[in-house]
Write a structure and sequence with these properties.
Number of helices: 0
Shape: globular
Structural class: mainly beta
Largest sheet: 7 strands, mixed
Strand content: over 45%
Radius of gyration: 13 Å
């Protein structure tokens, strides 16, 4: 059993910043990768950013240069620093971990609005 606990979502004005955190716990032997995805009503869940255990990162084109994914391997925690937020970034953000089975967090709402 693996649990993912997300935090850090909320309401922010355009141009503002938020930092999301996701801590994984439970029956974890090795984490292969962690990531963040987001979803808006009526749309498919889309990749935002991923990071492997070796530190390799991958970003959606829409967030490159604005978002940064990082991890604390000792704490099985992944972070998403979101800067220069835009209204189109509004979504429920989900944490994902591959161990190698895939587990998802419960989601945290990010709303970018003035």
């Amino acid at each position: 059993q693996v649990q993912l606990v997300e935090s850090g979502g909320g309401l922010v004005q355009p141009g503002g910043s938020l930092r999301l955190s996701c801590a994984a716990s439970g029956n974890i032997f090795r984490i292969y990768a962690m990531g963040w995805y987001r979803q808006t009503p009526g749309k498919r869940r889309e990749l935002v950013a991923t990071i492997t255990s070796g530190g390799s990162t991958n970003y959606a084109d829409s967030v490159k240069g604005r978002f940064t994914i990082s991890e604390d391997n000792a704490k099985n925690t992944v972070f998403l620093q979101m800067n220069s937020l835009k209204p189109e970034d509004t979504a429920v953000y989900y944490c994902n971990v591959q161990i190698p089975l895939t587990y998802w967090g419960q989601g945290t709402q990010v709303t970018v609005s003035s």
